[in-house]
Amino acid sequence: MPITRVFCLVFVILPAFSGDVIKNGKRHQGRELVFTEELRIGGEDRDETDWARTSTSVSVDSKGRIYVTDPGEGRVVVFDARGNYLKTIGGRGQAPGEFLDLHRYEVQRDDTALVFDRSEGSVARIHRFDTEGKFVSRREYTRIVVEPVMSTVGGKLAALVVSHDPKAGKMFFRHSVLSPELKTLKLLSDESGPAMDRSRLMDGNYWVERIARNLRRAWTRDPVYNFDHKGRLIVSRPTAYEITVWESDLKTKALVFSRDYDRIAYDDAFITAFVEGLVETILADPDLGRIVTPIILSRAVDKAELTPFKPPVAAIIPMDDGHILVVHDVNLATRETRADIFSAAGRYMGQVTMGDFALARTGDGLFLPRMVFSNGAAYTVMTDEEGSHSVVRFRYHWKQ
Question: Whole-prediction pTM value?
């Protein structure tokens, strides 16, 4: 049932690190990373920039061409480095090169692309495109994969994998690193819960109980991860501000660093905005939207009795020069996002604050990175107070 796409149950399992953890205190002083906008695409009344969903994402090739994933229309819109429209890849459908439930178009280091899509029943599909955006191949897999992040090196994915054991009456929720063929390369979490009771699918109280239970577990056990430009996995430890960088072989730890932090409390405006985000996700699935109403979601959030503080890490964004942005606050009411900046050696450098969800967004009940760094620039999707989305390119520099 698609509700598995919305809430996740996780508990990170990491072996002990034999080296030293780079510990960073609470100091707030540091260098300032300054972003200067140099290109904005969107906001005009034209079809190729009409991106309706917050899950709109961006990827960039070595020539500076910008690929905008538009899940609402099941297409990828391509612009040149100056922001001029070039072409559209795909469209909603079953034909080769078309998508049913488009999530991510990720340009690889060699300028080919891997595309993550889902068919009916949330079954994963991986498409391959050549350097000019021409369709090469598509494979469908029996695994249910939720909101992956994709590496630009080797095509690895990290995502929640959901499976069902009807004999045991359980569902399994495993955050994993996957190959492009969706074979498990590294298990990051292993959690289980009761299977869906199909006799109660039309019972609102059942959904309130189920969603509340999943929310309680997800809020305290959710790993956050991404891949850097070397193909290394960067993952946080739940409930703690601690980041581990794994070498590309996924066996060797390259770095572990942590930071003391002041916990950030939720307020009513945040909870209201969070429920609104869940409603948008639910309504994107017509079948689920007929069952799980906004009232049910609000009741589930109340019943979950979430901890009064936000998780210490919301998203991880690697820069192409080796620095790492750790997003520690996403304010859903004001759209402001804040991140700490660490050097390649794990040392705290400073902070950056950006509006309009420039650094991270919500999706399927998770926080997900939005900004990507490529060719010495930063690219992101920004969402204004009217809900309109624009792709923005920034130049950045350290303020002396």
Answer: 0.88
